[in-house]
Amino acid sequence: MPEKTYVLGVDSSTQSCKALLVEAETGRVVETRRADHPGGTEVDPAAWRAALEEATADLLPRAAAVSVAGQQHGMVLLGERREPVRPALLWNDTRSAHEAEELTERLGGPERAARRVGSVPVASYTATKLAWTRRNEPESARRTRAVALPHDYLTLTLNADDELVTDHGDASGTAYYSPADRAWVPEIAEEALGHAPRLPRLAEPGEAVGRTRGGAVLAAGTGDNMGAALGLGLRPGDVALSMGTSAVAMMVADSPAEDSSGSVSGFCDATGRYLPLACTLNGAPVMDLGRRLLGVGQEEFSELALAGEPGAGGAVFLPYLNGERTPNLPDATAQLGGVVGDLSRENLARAVVEGLACSVREAMDRVVGHSGGEPGRVLLIGGGARSRAFQRILAGVLGRPLELPDAEEFVALGAARQAAWALSGDEEPPRWAAAEGETVEAPARPEVFEAYLRFRETMHPGA
Ligand SMILES: Nc1ncnc2c1ncn2[C@@H]1O[C@H](COP(=O)(O)OP(=O)(O)O)[C@@H](O)[C@H]1O
Ligand SMILES: O=C(CO)[C@@H](O)[C@H](O)COP(=O)(O)O
């Protein structure tokens, strides 16, 4: 029997690095590894590199091709010898909110900004972090020779040719890239940093960008959400909801979003199409906080929330733990309203999960509203999707069934598919069987979402 060919897909996301060894022909996952990342919104890229090495040590030698997908937007400043100049600032670091407003102004206001760089910049976008660094740490800015994204940096560490490369998907989250032109807008990076940094070469979808030292083909990699869309085989009309550190709602599209309201990020995907997306800063860690406060594990927290009443006895939770991006409230904190003397543990857990579900519904409504159509399938993925309470409560708040694809780690699976694509040299990604899954249904609870919006309007009028 001929030897099987394997490819390696990596997801270097906010909380951890996950690696899947996958059969190139079928997409069947044969091995899974994981290594933790440090917490915080500022991380030394060396820690990601160490996690990548740990998670892939015994898998990389078995792979004919490899691809790294990574958390989007993070600013990795590289010096003369390609060494990180300072810790990376992550997508969920809101310190550059003021610079985001300034950049939007400089680009001619929201409408022009959306046309020029695909999205209205918020603090997540890399360009705003460059401007923050120039203003607050001029020495770090001065020492910077090249700017990379997390996945570009990790791909560079694997590349025997030492070339810095990125893809259009992750590039589209920098705010110094034009999705309409599919090209960098280097003058934005230059103005933000105070001098022109080297930017990675933009690889085309499916391109083999080099080889590892062991001889495996290296794909360009991509942003984690683009990886998930590729891993899911997202079809027009499908909505993918990802419940990781962030909560994301995304669809695939044939043209850039250019949403001047700022609700929808106008990203590229990893296949040459586009990926309109709404992202919140507060995903699964909202449930982590809930279970810490109640002193229970994930299972018990889920059971408590399911035992609470729909509407949580009037308690309403705005889950903006780390500021928020959808809606754009970078300085917000979380708020619990409607608390009465007999608030039970069950209803407290319920309020936390309902608040999270409402914030996901808001993100999804914005993306679907922008697409102008009715959604087809709604797919739920990511670590937080394992919570039964979240599945059921979200289905109720959305008022529609949710599909739970039965595979896990779609970002790493998408990266593996990109690696197999680069290995094949074909025009299109390999056809792998779509993941089957369970459908979750629950009675519609429009009143829960209405109560959430009313409370939000009281706390943040006009948000
Ligand atoms: N059964 C569960 N219930 C609720 N949350 C969960 C469960 N399993 C994992 N999570 C949460 O999922 C998150 C990690 O998801 P993941 O998609 O890996 O994040 P990221 O890609 O941002 O690193 C963590 O906050 C973790 O606590
Ligand atoms: O900022 C965004 C998308 O614009 C986030 O979705 C990051 O890409 C981080 O993703 P996760 O770690 O939550 O998967």
Write the topology of this structure.
Layout: E1 6-12, E2 16-23, E3 29-36, E4 42-43, H1 45-56, E5 65-70, E6 76-78, E7 88-89, H2 97-106, H3 110-117, H4 126-136, H5 138-143, E8 146-148, H6 150-158, E9 165-167, H7 168-171, E10 177-178, E11 183-184, H8 186-193, E12 201-203, E13 208-211, E14 217-219, E15 222-223, H9 224-232, E16 239-243, E17 247-250, E18 265-268, E19 274-280, H10 285-294, H11 298-307, E20 316-318, E21 335-337, H12 345-371, E22 378-381, H13 388-398, E23 402-405, H14 410-424, E24 437-440, H15 446-459
Parallel strand pairs: 1-5, 5-14, 5-15, 9-12, 16-22
Antiparallel strand pairs: 1-2, 2-3, 4-7, 6-8, 10-11, 13-14, 16-17, 17-19, 18-19, 20-21, 23-24
Helix pairs in contact: 1-6, 2-4, 4-8, 9-14, 10-12, 11-12, 11-13, 12-13
Adenosine-5'-diphosphate (ADP) binds at residues 13-16, 244-245, 284-285, 287-288, 298, 382-384, 386-387.
Structural commentary:
With 463 residues, the protein is an alpha+beta fold. The protein has a domain of 219 residues: ATPase, nucleotide binding domain (Nucleotidyltransferase, domain 5), CATH 3.30.420. 35% of the residues lie in helices and 21% in strands. α4 packs parallel to α8 and α11 runs parallel beside α13. Bound molecules: adenosine-5'-diphosphate (ADP) and 5-O-phosphono-D-xylulose. This is Xylulose kinase. Belongs to the FGGY kinase family. Catalyzes the phosphorylation of D-xylulose to D-xylulose 5-phosphate.
